[in-house]
Design goal:
single chain; 441 residues; alpha/beta; FAD/NAD(P)-binding domain; 6-stranded mixed β-sheet; 4-stranded parallel β-sheet; 12 helices; globular
Length: 441
Amino acid sequence: MGEKHRVVILGGGFGGLAAAQKLKHVPVEVTLIDRRNFHLFQPLLYQVATGSLSPGEIAAPLRGVLSRQKNTLVLLGEAIDVDPAANRVTLRDGATFGYDSLIVATGTQTSYYGNDSWREWAPSLKSIEEATAIRHKILYAFERAERAGTPDDARAWLTFIIVGAGATGLELSGALAEIARETLRHDFRKIDPQKARIILMEGAPRVLGPFPEDLSVKAEKLVSRLGVELIKGVMVTNIDAGGVTFKRGDSSEKLAAKTVLWAGGVMATPFGRKLAERTHAETDRSGRIKVNRGLTAPHFPNIFIIGDLAHAADEKGKPLPGVAQVAMQGGAYAARVIRARLEGKKELPPFHDFNKGEMAVIGRAAAVANIFGVHVSGLLAWLMWLFIHLIYIVEFQSRVLVFVQWGFEYLTFSRGARLITGEAATDSIDQADKTGKVHCR
């Protein structure tokens, strides 16, 4: 009897994990490689960043999740190169792994549109480390405002700017508004957290660009009701220690703020670019790889590219969004194709995304959702959002913890994970006075 078919999966996110789980009863050897030892439930990262949840409540160890799957080996490592002709992947530490089928689900990274120096002043929200750094930055701002020497200084510390009004930007701004208006309302003596300015900036004429226009309008109303200021149709030209400079029409303006958060676009990772180069694949403007209708790399039918890294199109040629449901369906499809090939069946029909809808939460009992073409907003959309997110959290224990935490927060407005971690807060003060930036390790 020959060797089993080797499937290497790069990335343990939504797509990679779905592919591994769907291969459980297939006679293959699965090797799942991720540079982290956990699966991260990214849609709830903003709740870690705003003190609602702790990191462990939205992350599950990959070995634990796949511990009963005997045909799957989980390894810690980061892919940096691939040789499609030799069917071999190379990791950063020099290790190499051969494959018969390769599933690439490595995701994307934050794009600052060529202005990488802004990252220093405006952290993004793609990892646990960034989420805890943002939490540090937000809570530290209120602490520094309490100690400010002048009203102008206090005002700058109490001004928060979020750049990008997609789902992440709305979620962050809504949560920030609730922290300022409710959670911290009675915690300080010299400042009034309710006077904090939360500003949401967007280059497009409306928020939630991919959503239907009526839901976009409702989202704007909901976020404005929380006290968030919306500035649309502007282009950010600089972010530094003093705040944000932007163009509105022909005029340039500057907003003084000590806390700027980035919720902008995404682009391919260095490995994604290397994969495109090795497979001679076309990429879109963000560097995402244009895949065939079967989610494979052009010229290499044994290399599947799924999730955020893939530029996949639907039947009408419209690009599929980089969201969890598309990644999970892509992972399941790749597993089905591999199984069908091993069983000698004819090739499966092209990948078809079953669009269940889209949703964004804005705050307490406030959300917008487009479910199977039905537009819902307010409390009902928020309850749907809660239910769906609880279902998709990987581990049962995490679901229970999150459910209890959310219930407690809903009743009390308390946020139990309001911790300033990293450097001790007092160690950062001298540095912040000099640069306006808090260093988070």
